[in-house]
Amino acid sequence: MRIGLLTGGGDCPGLNAVIRAVVRRGLQGENTFVGFRHGWSGVLADDAIELTLASTAGILPRGGTILGTSRTNPFADGQDGTTSIRRTLQARGVDALVPIGGEDTLGVALRLHREGIPIVGVPKTIDNDLGGTDVTFGFHTAVQIVTDAIDRLHTTAESHNRVMVVEVMGRHTGWIATYAGLAGGADAILVPERPFDIDQVAAHLRRRHERGRSFSIVVVAEGATPREGSLQVRHGSATDAFGHVRLGGIGVTLEEELEARTGYESRVTILGHVQRGGTPVAFDRVLATRFGVAAMDAATSERFGTMVGLRGTAIVEVALEQALAESKLLDPKLYETAELFFG
Asked: Residue 121: helix, strand or coil by DSSP?
């Protein structure tokens, strides 16, 4: 078979490990590989490179993606890129396509599958919010990066008697915020699944200070929202090709409002894209490798319209429709465990 690969959406540690694993597994048979550059953009424009044993050697520990990525949507603004994509795949002799991405990239893949294009998806989202898999690669690397940052902020917060607000990724879910907040000993964690009351947060910090704790760490997911009417958050107005508003601003708002309500000096640290960068941790390298091998096996067996995923300790295949049916929200019990240590 001739297999096409692409990486779409935001980059994250572990993408190169998937590419390497698909190629390495496929080279055990009579298979060849083509990598489309910059996500769906490369398929639309027929911009691709050959993937071989030599070109994928040494990429396991590298962050980012050797193929490049983008948030290109072949169906944006009412367009239908199916014909262009089909033409490119036929010209390149591609028998099956393996897109590696999150709900947007795999949403496009599902639509193409329904048009008869052979697809096997690999889940990728730093937010860990994709259904059909217990964990996505890149998530644990992001959690480690945030935890390291919280550890460092503890010392400066204590030295200056400050409230430190740490804004992390998490558009719809608070997995990173909760995992890293729990691991880093945060004093409050604000997540999209639980709209917060700014006055309650301020009261909680005042109680800490009254008990002799002179500093606090507040971790907030970028998509966290205040209860209706309690606070106005300033987000940008720009949207991407999939209609997502560019988030950012909740951390700055909290810094200002908490200082105004408590009188405690406050500072915000927005970790942003540093969470996506650098080398993947061991867990993500192994998971991404297992995903790549499983995706290649599914493709050669012509089990199309599926996505590989992790259930418990086993790699499974799930229908793309099932995987994309709904976002995987934060486990309430995990958040309740984290709440035990607030303050």
From this structure: strand
